[in-house]
Prior knowledge:
The chain is mainly beta. It has two helices and seven strands; from the N terminus they run H-H-E-E-E-E-E-E-E. The strands form two sheets. It has a four-stranded antiparallel beta sheet with strand order 1-2-7-6, with no helix packed on it. A three-stranded antiparallel beta sheet has the order 3-4-5, with no helix packed on it. A hairpin with a 3-residue loop joins strand 1 and strand 2. The termini are far apart. Mean pLDDT is 78; it is low at 32-36.
Amino acid sequence: MALIKFPTKSLNTDAVNPFVNTVFDNLFNDNFISDRLVSRVPAVNISESEKSFKIEMAAPGLDKSDFKINVDKNLITISAEKKEEQVSEEKLYSKKEFNYSSFSRSFTLPETVDYSNIEAAYEGGILVLTVGKKEDAIIAKRLIEVK
């Protein structure tokens, strides 16, 4: 088996175009493609407590009014659309990665969800959805005696 060493970030710069090395270094970086795909959809943390489920979504740079949250049967869909600001002719970008123009994520809800008890809050770039559980789904704590 032959081992092939991929080039790593180089320290030398091209005097004609300083961005050339960066572009070629990125092409051979394993994370080049995967980082771009993952960054298009906000990351989430999903947790469960005794009385509810919590979905936390990292979505910085948006306003509360940008979000749309729909529940259809057992599917909850969180989407957002932000109008992209007009690019000024005075500002020339060498790299522009800010792109939260739109996204959509859907999650299947379990049967234990109380659909009348879903709340959403957006603060500090984090959207938090709290999805309550049905009363009969909340397990009462009790001590079992060993006989």
